[in-house]
Protein backbone atom coordinates (compact mmCIF):
# COMPACT_ATOMS: atom_id res chain seq x y z
CA UNK A 1 0.00 0.00 0.00
CA UNK A 2 3.09 2.25 0.12
CA UNK A 3 4.72 3.96 -2.81
CA UNK A 4 3.38 5.78 -5.80
CA UNK A 5 -0.26 5.20 -6.47
CA UNK A 6 -2.08 5.60 -9.77
CA UNK A 7 -4.53 8.43 -10.12
CA UNK A 8 -8.08 7.78 -8.99
CA UNK A 9 -10.70 7.85 -11.69
CA UNK A 10 -13.23 10.59 -11.04
CA UNK A 11 -16.76 11.16 -12.16
CA UNK A 12 -17.10 14.67 -13.56
CA UNK A 13 -19.52 16.69 -11.51
CA UNK A 14 -20.90 18.92 -14.23
CA UNK A 15 -20.78 18.12 -17.89
CA UNK A 16 -21.52 20.28 -20.87
CA UNK A 17 -24.99 19.38 -22.15
CA UNK A 18 -24.93 17.11 -25.16
CA UNK A 19 -26.77 18.62 -28.15
CA UNK A 20 -30.33 17.41 -28.42
CA UNK A 21 -30.61 14.39 -30.67
CA UNK A 22 -26.86 13.68 -30.68
CA UNK A 23 -27.34 10.04 -29.83
CA UNK A 24 -30.10 9.68 -32.42
CA UNK A 25 -27.94 11.26 -35.15
CA UNK A 26 -25.03 8.98 -34.26
CA UNK A 27 -27.30 5.94 -34.46
CA UNK A 28 -28.80 7.14 -37.75
CA UNK A 29 -25.38 7.52 -39.31
CA UNK A 30 -24.45 3.98 -38.25
CA UNK A 31 -27.66 2.59 -39.75
CA UNK A 32 -27.13 4.50 -42.97
CA UNK A 33 -23.63 3.07 -43.30
CA UNK A 34 -24.87 -0.47 -42.81
CA UNK A 35 -27.71 0.09 -45.26
CA UNK A 36 -25.26 1.19 -47.96
CA UNK A 37 -23.06 -1.82 -47.24
CA UNK A 38 -25.85 -4.32 -47.67
CA UNK A 39 -27.66 -2.68 -50.62
CA UNK A 40 -24.69 -1.67 -52.78
CA UNK A 41 -22.55 -4.59 -54.00
CA UNK A 42 -19.47 -2.45 -54.49
CA UNK A 43 -19.67 -1.23 -50.86
CA UNK A 44 -20.14 -4.75 -49.56
CA UNK A 45 -17.26 -6.13 -51.61
CA UNK A 46 -14.99 -3.31 -50.49
CA UNK A 47 -15.87 -4.00 -46.86
CA UNK A 48 -15.88 -7.78 -46.69
CA UNK A 49 -14.23 -8.97 -49.91
CA UNK A 50 -15.91 -10.21 -53.05
CA UNK A 51 -14.75 -13.80 -52.65
CA UNK A 52 -16.83 -14.66 -49.58
CA UNK A 53 -19.18 -17.60 -50.06
CA UNK A 54 -22.92 -16.84 -49.70
CA UNK A 55 -23.22 -18.70 -46.41
CA UNK A 56 -20.32 -16.75 -44.99
CA UNK A 57 -21.90 -13.53 -46.16
CA UNK A 58 -25.11 -14.45 -44.40
CA UNK A 59 -23.22 -15.24 -41.18
CA UNK A 60 -21.43 -11.90 -41.31
CA UNK A 61 -24.74 -10.16 -41.84
CA UNK A 62 -26.30 -11.86 -38.84
CA UNK A 63 -23.37 -10.92 -36.63
CA UNK A 64 -23.51 -7.29 -37.72
CA UNK A 65 -27.24 -7.11 -37.11
CA UNK A 66 -26.80 -8.57 -33.60
CA UNK A 67 -24.01 -6.12 -32.79
CA UNK A 68 -26.08 -3.24 -34.10
CA UNK A 69 -29.06 -4.32 -32.03
CA UNK A 70 -26.95 -4.57 -28.89
CA UNK A 71 -25.48 -1.11 -29.49
CA UNK A 72 -28.96 0.30 -30.09
CA UNK A 73 -30.16 -1.08 -26.75
CA UNK A 74 -27.12 0.36 -24.95
CA UNK A 75 -27.52 3.77 -26.53
CA UNK A 76 -31.19 4.44 -26.20
CA UNK A 77 -32.13 3.99 -22.54
CA UNK A 78 -33.28 0.39 -22.57
CA UNK A 79 -32.44 -1.43 -19.36
CA UNK A 80 -30.90 -0.11 -16.11
CA UNK A 81 -30.01 3.59 -15.69
CA UNK A 82 -26.67 5.04 -16.70
CA UNK A 83 -24.50 7.04 -14.32
CA UNK A 84 -25.83 10.20 -15.93
CA UNK A 85 -29.40 9.00 -15.29
CA UNK A 86 -28.57 8.28 -11.64
CA UNK A 87 -26.96 11.69 -11.14
CA UNK A 88 -30.01 13.36 -12.60
CA UNK A 89 -32.40 11.32 -10.43
CA UNK A 90 -30.34 11.89 -7.27
CA UNK A 91 -30.11 15.64 -7.92
CA UNK A 92 -26.34 15.64 -7.43
CA UNK A 93 -25.59 18.19 -10.13
CA UNK A 94 -27.88 20.70 -8.44
CA UNK A 95 -25.93 20.66 -5.16
CA UNK A 96 -23.29 23.33 -4.67
CA UNK A 97 -22.00 21.62 -1.53
CA UNK A 98 -22.29 18.15 -0.04
CA UNK A 99 -23.48 18.18 3.62
CA UNK A 100 -22.65 14.94 5.45
CA UNK A 101 -23.58 13.92 8.98
CA UNK A 102 -20.65 12.39 10.90
CA UNK A 103 -19.59 11.82 14.47
CA UNK A 104 -17.26 14.48 15.86
CA UNK A 105 -15.95 12.84 19.06
CA UNK A 106 -14.55 9.50 17.85
CA UNK A 107 -10.73 9.58 17.56
CA UNK A 108 -9.51 7.60 14.58
CA UNK A 109 -12.96 7.52 13.00
CA UNK A 110 -14.54 10.95 12.91
CA UNK A 111 -13.06 13.65 15.09
CA UNK A 112 -13.22 17.41 14.86
CA UNK A 113 -10.15 19.12 16.30
CA UNK A 114 -11.46 21.85 18.60
CA UNK A 115 -8.28 23.82 18.01
CA UNK A 116 -8.16 24.25 14.24
CA UNK A 117 -11.60 22.86 13.34
CA UNK A 118 -10.14 20.16 11.06
CA UNK A 119 -11.83 16.80 10.55
CA UNK A 120 -9.99 13.50 10.39
CA UNK A 121 -10.55 9.78 10.75
CA UNK A 122 -11.59 6.72 8.76
CA UNK A 123 -15.22 7.79 8.29
CA UNK A 124 -14.00 11.20 7.13
CA UNK A 125 -11.73 9.60 4.52
CA UNK A 126 -14.56 7.38 3.29
CA UNK A 127 -16.76 10.47 2.98
CA UNK A 128 -14.09 12.22 0.90
CA UNK A 129 -13.77 9.14 -1.32
CA UNK A 130 -17.50 9.13 -2.04
CA UNK A 131 -17.61 12.90 -2.53
CA UNK A 132 -14.75 12.74 -5.03
CA UNK A 133 -16.58 10.24 -7.21
CA UNK A 134 -19.71 12.38 -7.03
CA UNK A 135 -17.67 15.27 -8.41
CA UNK A 136 -17.17 17.35 -5.27
CA UNK A 137 -13.88 18.90 -4.24
CA UNK A 138 -12.84 18.61 -0.61
CA UNK A 139 -13.68 22.26 -0.08
CA UNK A 140 -17.24 21.51 -1.22
CA UNK A 141 -17.80 18.89 1.49
CA UNK A 142 -19.50 20.13 4.68
CA UNK A 143 -19.23 17.95 7.78
CA UNK A 144 -21.74 18.34 10.60
CA UNK A 145 -21.78 16.50 13.92
CA UNK A 146 -24.69 14.11 14.29
CA UNK A 147 -25.86 12.21 17.34
CA UNK A 148 -26.92 8.58 17.19
CA UNK A 149 -30.62 9.20 17.69
CA UNK A 150 -30.66 11.81 14.88
CA UNK A 151 -29.09 9.61 12.20
CA UNK A 152 -32.44 8.18 11.04
CA UNK A 153 -33.80 11.73 10.67
CA UNK A 154 -30.81 12.76 8.53
CA UNK A 155 -30.49 15.83 10.74
CA UNK A 156 -27.14 17.01 12.07
CA UNK A 157 -26.17 20.12 14.05
CA UNK A 158 -23.92 23.02 13.15
CA UNK A 159 -21.48 24.66 15.55
CA UNK A 160 -24.15 27.11 16.67
CA UNK A 161 -26.49 24.26 17.64
CA UNK A 162 -28.84 24.72 14.68
CA UNK A 163 -30.34 21.66 12.95
CA UNK A 164 -28.93 20.97 9.49
CA UNK A 165 -30.39 18.47 6.98
CA UNK A 166 -27.72 16.30 5.38
CA UNK A 167 -27.56 14.32 2.14
CA UNK A 168 -25.93 11.27 3.72
CA UNK A 169 -24.91 9.92 7.12
CA UNK A 170 -21.51 8.27 7.61
CA UNK A 171 -21.43 7.86 11.35
CA UNK A 172 -20.53 4.34 12.58
CA UNK A 173 -24.09 3.40 11.55
CA UNK A 174 -24.67 -0.37 11.75
CA UNK A 175 -26.96 -1.93 9.15
CA UNK A 176 -29.85 -3.86 10.75
CA UNK A 177 -33.19 -5.09 9.47
CA UNK A 178 -34.96 -2.96 12.07
CA UNK A 179 -33.26 0.20 10.88
CA UNK A 180 -33.80 -0.61 7.22
CA UNK A 181 -37.54 -0.84 7.97
CA UNK A 182 -37.59 2.76 9.18
CA UNK A 183 -39.23 5.16 6.69
CA UNK A 184 -36.27 7.50 6.17
CA UNK A 185 -33.36 5.04 6.26
CA UNK A 186 -31.75 3.49 3.19
CA UNK A 187 -28.31 1.89 3.48
CA UNK A 188 -25.60 1.35 0.95
CA UNK A 189 -23.44 -1.74 1.03
CA UNK A 190 -21.23 -1.99 4.12
CA UNK A 191 -17.91 -0.17 4.11
CA UNK A 192 -16.53 -1.59 7.41
CA UNK A 193 -17.00 -4.66 9.61
CA UNK A 194 -16.35 -4.52 13.35
CA UNK A 195 -17.71 -6.06 16.58
CA UNK A 196 -18.70 -5.06 20.09
CA UNK A 197 -16.19 -4.79 22.93
CA UNK A 198 -15.87 -3.14 26.35
CA UNK A 199 -13.50 -0.70 28.05
CA UNK A 200 -12.86 -0.28 31.76
CA UNK A 201 -10.48 1.82 33.79
CA UNK A 202 -6.97 0.42 34.13
CA UNK A 203 -6.61 -2.33 36.75
CA UNK A 204 -10.09 -3.83 36.38
CA UNK A 205 -10.56 -7.56 36.85
CA UNK A 206 -10.39 -9.62 33.68
CA UNK A 207 -13.48 -9.29 31.48
CA UNK A 208 -14.58 -11.97 29.03
CA UNK A 209 -18.31 -11.24 28.65
CA UNK A 210 -20.86 -8.55 29.41
CA UNK A 211 -22.59 -10.95 31.82
CA UNK A 212 -19.84 -10.09 34.28
CA UNK A 213 -21.41 -6.62 34.55
CA UNK A 214 -24.77 -7.89 35.79
CA UNK A 215 -26.28 -5.27 38.11
CA UNK A 216 -23.33 -2.97 37.33
CA UNK A 217 -23.47 0.27 35.37
CA UNK A 218 -22.42 0.14 31.73
CA UNK A 219 -22.58 3.24 29.57
CA UNK A 220 -23.46 2.93 25.91
CA UNK A 221 -24.83 5.08 23.10
CA UNK A 222 -28.51 5.77 22.74
CA UNK A 223 -30.12 4.18 19.68
CA UNK A 224 -27.14 1.86 19.24
CA UNK A 225 -27.06 -1.88 18.58
CA UNK A 226 -24.69 -2.23 21.54
CA UNK A 227 -27.44 -1.15 23.92
CA UNK A 228 -29.54 -4.23 23.13
CA UNK A 229 -26.64 -6.59 23.79
CA UNK A 230 -25.67 -4.87 27.05
CA UNK A 231 -29.29 -4.83 28.22
CA UNK A 232 -29.71 -8.58 27.70
CA UNK A 233 -26.65 -9.21 29.89
CA UNK A 234 -28.38 -7.83 32.97
CA UNK A 235 -26.23 -4.71 33.19
CA UNK A 236 -27.69 -1.43 34.32
CA UNK A 237 -27.58 0.66 31.16
CA UNK A 238 -26.61 4.31 31.21
CA UNK A 239 -27.46 5.76 27.79
CA UNK A 240 -25.76 8.82 26.38
CA UNK A 241 -25.96 10.54 23.00
CA UNK A 242 -22.19 10.88 22.62
CA UNK A 243 -19.47 8.35 23.36
CA UNK A 244 -17.36 11.15 24.85
CA UNK A 245 -20.06 11.55 27.50
CA UNK A 246 -19.72 7.86 28.36
CA UNK A 247 -15.98 8.27 28.85
CA UNK A 248 -16.61 11.28 31.08
CA UNK A 249 -18.83 9.05 33.24
CA UNK A 250 -16.17 6.32 33.32
CA UNK A 251 -13.39 8.73 34.24
CA UNK A 252 -15.47 9.95 37.18
CA UNK A 253 -16.20 6.36 38.31
CA UNK A 254 -19.90 6.93 37.72
CA UNK A 255 -20.05 3.78 35.58
CA UNK A 256 -18.09 0.53 35.58
CA UNK A 257 -17.54 0.21 31.85
CA UNK A 258 -18.25 1.60 28.39
CA UNK A 259 -19.46 -0.77 25.69
CA UNK A 260 -19.96 -0.13 21.98
CA UNK A 261 -18.25 -1.05 18.72
CA UNK A 262 -14.58 -1.97 19.11
CA UNK A 263 -13.42 0.47 16.43
CA UNK A 264 -14.92 3.36 18.40
CA UNK A 265 -13.42 2.27 21.72
CA UNK A 266 -10.06 1.57 20.09
CA UNK A 267 -9.57 5.25 19.34
CA UNK A 268 -9.95 6.21 22.99
CA UNK A 269 -7.63 3.44 24.12
CA UNK A 270 -4.98 4.49 21.60
CA UNK A 271 -5.23 8.12 22.67
CA UNK A 272 -4.80 7.32 26.37
CA UNK A 273 -3.42 3.75 26.67
CA UNK A 274 -2.34 4.11 30.29
CA UNK A 275 -5.82 4.97 31.55
CA UNK A 276 -8.00 2.22 30.07
CA UNK A 277 -8.16 -1.54 29.61
CA UNK A 278 -9.79 -2.76 26.39
CA UNK A 279 -11.44 -6.19 26.47
CA UNK A 280 -12.41 -8.49 23.62
CA UNK A 281 -15.80 -10.09 24.28
CA UNK A 282 -15.35 -12.82 21.67
CA UNK A 283 -18.64 -11.76 20.12
CA UNK A 284 -19.32 -13.52 16.80
CA UNK A 285 -21.86 -10.90 15.76
CA UNK A 286 -20.57 -8.59 13.05
CA UNK A 287 -21.42 -4.91 13.09
CA UNK A 288 -21.61 -3.88 9.43
CA UNK A 289 -21.43 -0.13 8.98
CA UNK A 290 -23.19 1.47 6.02
CA UNK A 291 -23.91 4.89 4.58
CA UNK A 292 -27.49 6.09 4.98
CA UNK A 293 -28.86 8.23 2.15
CA UNK A 294 -32.38 8.82 3.44
CA UNK A 295 -34.87 8.01 0.67
CA UNK A 296 -32.56 8.82 -2.23
CA UNK A 297 -32.33 5.49 -4.06
CA UNK A 298 -30.31 6.92 -6.96
CA UNK A 299 -27.75 8.35 -4.53
CA UNK A 300 -27.50 4.94 -2.86
CA UNK A 301 -26.64 3.37 -6.21
CA UNK A 302 -23.99 6.03 -6.89
CA UNK A 303 -22.37 5.41 -3.50
CA UNK A 304 -22.55 1.65 -4.09
CA UNK A 305 -20.77 2.27 -7.39
CA UNK A 306 -17.91 3.97 -5.53
CA UNK A 307 -17.69 1.13 -3.01
CA UNK A 308 -17.81 -1.44 -5.81
CA UNK A 309 -14.97 0.22 -7.71
CA UNK A 310 -12.94 0.60 -4.53
CA UNK A 311 -13.27 -3.09 -3.72
CA UNK A 312 -12.81 -4.56 -7.20
CA UNK A 313 -10.45 -2.22 -9.04
CA UNK A 314 -6.83 -3.20 -8.22
CA UNK A 315 -5.74 0.33 -9.11
CA UNK A 316 -8.11 1.89 -6.55
CA UNK A 317 -6.44 1.79 -3.12
CA UNK A 318 -8.34 4.61 -1.45
CA UNK A 319 -10.09 2.34 1.08
CA UNK A 320 -6.79 0.67 2.02
CA UNK A 321 -5.04 4.01 2.43
CA UNK A 322 -7.86 5.24 4.66
CA UNK A 323 -7.63 2.14 6.86
CA UNK A 324 -3.84 2.15 7.11
CA UNK A 325 -3.66 5.82 8.09
CA UNK A 326 -6.34 5.61 10.81
CA UNK A 327 -7.55 2.31 12.32
CA UNK A 328 -4.36 0.36 11.59
CA UNK A 329 -2.31 2.87 13.59
CA UNK A 330 -4.35 2.02 16.72
CA UNK A 331 -3.89 -1.75 16.62
CA UNK A 332 -0.64 -1.85 18.62
CA UNK A 333 -2.13 0.10 21.52
CA UNK A 334 -5.22 -2.09 21.71
CA UNK A 335 -4.15 -5.16 23.63
CA UNK A 336 -5.69 -6.44 26.84
CA UNK A 337 -3.67 -6.59 30.11
CA UNK A 338 -2.53 -10.12 29.20
CA UNK A 339 -1.10 -8.92 25.90
CA UNK A 340 -3.82 -10.36 23.68
CA UNK A 341 -4.80 -8.12 20.75
CA UNK A 342 -8.33 -6.75 20.75
CA UNK A 343 -9.81 -6.90 17.24
CA UNK A 344 -10.87 -3.43 16.09
CA UNK A 345 -12.12 -4.06 12.56
CA UNK A 346 -11.49 -6.35 9.65
CA UNK A 347 -8.61 -4.97 7.61
CA UNK A 348 -10.32 -5.68 4.28
CA UNK A 349 -13.15 -3.81 2.64
CA UNK A 350 -16.39 -5.81 2.95
CA UNK A 351 -17.75 -7.47 -0.21
CA UNK A 352 -19.47 -4.78 -2.27
CA UNK A 353 -22.89 -4.79 -3.86
CA UNK A 354 -22.72 -4.58 -7.64
CA UNK A 355 -25.01 -1.71 -8.63
CA UNK A 356 -27.37 -2.17 -11.57
CA UNK A 357 -25.86 0.47 -13.85
CA UNK A 358 -25.87 0.60 -17.64
CA UNK A 359 -22.51 1.14 -19.27
CA UNK A 360 -22.53 3.05 -22.53
CA UNK A 361 -20.12 1.68 -25.18
CA UNK A 362 -17.56 4.43 -24.54
CA UNK A 363 -17.71 4.15 -20.73
CA UNK A 364 -15.96 1.95 -18.18
CA UNK A 365 -18.32 2.33 -15.26
CA UNK A 366 -17.85 -0.99 -13.44
CA UNK A 367 -14.23 -1.67 -14.30
UniProtKB/TrEMBL annotation:
The keyword Transmembrane helix applies. The chain crosses the membrane at residues 55-73. Coiled coil: none annotated. This is Glutamate transport system substrate-binding protein. Residues 8-17 have a biased composition (Basic residues). Belongs to the bacterial solute-binding protein 3 family. It comes from the Bacteria. One of its GO terms (cellular component) is extracellular region. Residues 1-26, 330-367 are annotated as: Disordered. The lineage of its organism: Bacteria, Bacillati, Actinomycetota, Actinomycetes, Micromonosporales. GO terms for biological process: amino acid transport.
Amino acid sequence: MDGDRPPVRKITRRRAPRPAGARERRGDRALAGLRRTFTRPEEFARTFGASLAPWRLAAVGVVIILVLGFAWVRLFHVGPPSVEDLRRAAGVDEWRTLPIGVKDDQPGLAYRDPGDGSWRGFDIDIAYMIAEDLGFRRDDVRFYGIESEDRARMEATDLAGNPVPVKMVIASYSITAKREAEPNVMFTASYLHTEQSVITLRGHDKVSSLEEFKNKKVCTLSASTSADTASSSGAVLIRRNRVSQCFDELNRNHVDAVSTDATILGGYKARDPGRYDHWDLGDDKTEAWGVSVGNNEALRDLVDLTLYRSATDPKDSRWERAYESTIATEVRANVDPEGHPVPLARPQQPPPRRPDVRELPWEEVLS
